Amino acid sequence: MANTNIKKVRTSDLELKDRLVSIQRVTKVTKGGRTFSFSAIVVVGNEDGVVGYGLGKASEVQAAIAKGVEDAKKNLIKIPVINGTIPHKQEFRYDGSLVMIRPAAPGTGIIAGGAMRAVLESVGVKNVLAKSKGSSNPHNLVKATIGALCELRDAASIARLRGISMDQVFNG
Question: Are strands 110-111 and 128-134 parallel, antiparallel or unpaired?
Answer without folding.
Answer: parallel
